[in-house]
């Protein structure tokens, strides 16, 4: 192992330090074993250097300032393989590249982080890509758009014959700060693959390259918990990853059957990396945009940084007040004016490149960055406004007397506090944004109602308040018979064989008797016989028919 990291790229001058490059690979040239270049990529402060140190026992510098990046350019170290032959294959020599972050910014108008990422992606055999688990699905936060550009470089260099296209590279995706209880591994992996494929598939028609991430890489995944809060679990996962890199006897060893070995001979690798660096810097070889567009990119990046610096200097006092829990008066109006002023500053500085893709892209990025920072302050102001509104409600509640109208008075107090909160929250909003305060409002209403209920319940227990009687609720249950009149011949087929009509003459006779009985009060005359024949008409003195008897 080399004693200390060696700087390979000069950050400010954006130059390759060829002497250091040769020094790093001298030990590889002396050895007879294969070697593999492993590059560690990711956004700043995600812990790239920390993980390399834990897994490989290296001494890469680790930062303590979460707002600044520690690694500048590319730092390299050699991890020498063991001379002990295991299964006819010695342990692999590993050259580690600790690469500057995707989002480290620009130096002198030139993207130092981007250049380092492009070189490392082009010459490495294994890429360890660090992604925060909570950023999956947010492309800009993960740095995948810049990684996509680096992949484009690889495909163009392959088409020019500068890079070998003999086999795939290995991509080890390391998800950081994974909460095991909340995160589903398969869902996380699926979402990441979809993000990569959507970026690659959304490129311009006819562009050189691939449509799926799996066309260029074999992909492996590792889920790491938080380094500070779950140290033991983190180290166990790191040990498992170390075995895959360093233990040829492991079933999951990455380098079985000479896989992911660098195709360039060790004695030529320094010259090869130098050639790749030069090709990446010469526009005639990699035509990624017209010269005017490239100049626009560099100039607009500078204007972006200047405008952002001006913005942060202007909001320093606001941030101090919000941290102290104070409400900024006229925040909505003043934040709108400041946002427009910063955009106007950018427009003036980058006016000569107005209409280019770079101008529009950086202006959109500046707008999003400013509004995101303003929204952070707005959220803190809403929390303070909730406290003020609740205090107003409690003050109103303390003056309410227990009476028959106490519930109406409490509701009035709730509505007054809610109206105060909504009106002030609306005034604090930056115009032209989609900021909402519905969740804060619901939380405030919930707390006020809960507090009011507790007060009324306490008064009820003490005997000072008797709730008014409520009107009873009438409830009736009805059951509708499906066939109240028997079977319906319109919908059900009548089968003569199974359902024969049975005629009972006794029913007819009994019906006649009932008809006779209901026809008169005490007596009734003989009428038409049930047989259908007519009987003679009797006189007033004729024989009386007694009920119950049939003559």
Automatic annotation (TrEMBL):
Gene Ontology biological-process entries: endoplasmic reticulum membrane fusion
Sequence ranges assigned to domain Sey1/RHD3-like three-helix bundle in this UniProt record: 330-450
GO cellular component, one term: endoplasmic reticulum
Region Disordered, annotated ranges: 520-551
Gene3D superfamilies in UniProt: P-loop containing nucleotide triphosphate hydrolases
UniProt xrefs under SUPFAM superfamilies: P-loop containing nucleoside triphosphate hydrolases (SSF52540)
GO molecular function annotations of the record: GTPase activity
Compositionally skewed regions (Polar residues) per UniProt: 531-543
Domain of life: Eukaryota
Protein name: GTP-binding protein
Source species: Galdieria sulphuraria (Red alga)
